[in-house]
Amino acid sequence: MLENERLIANLRSDISVLQNNMQANQEKLQRLRQARDYITNEHGDLSAHKKLISDPELSPSTWAGKHATEFLNVRTNIEQSYMAIITQQVEDILSEIEGKIAQLESANSGYSNSITSKNYRISQF
Question: Which residue segment(s) compose the domain that 82 sits in?
């Protein structure tokens, strides 16, 4: 009987650890989802503001010469960097977040299954 009590105590301790792990993962999931939503919203704002890179529009009649050419080159570089940010970099970040979310959800599913199994074993005593 004493052995059964020790086993039950160990199982309950294991369950407590698993529940704590699940709770920690739930908090991480909440933060990741909030970050994903924030980045998605900001990505939309970034895309909407892309046109501001070209303001004011310059033409040979409004501005010409060496400084105009240099300025247009800088503006082109800024636009290319901006496009890299709003396409590839943001997508990479969102993909990483989604991967981490999937990983944590999978871990929680495993924890939940372990908890169910340990509760079943306790009920068998």
Answer: 2-123
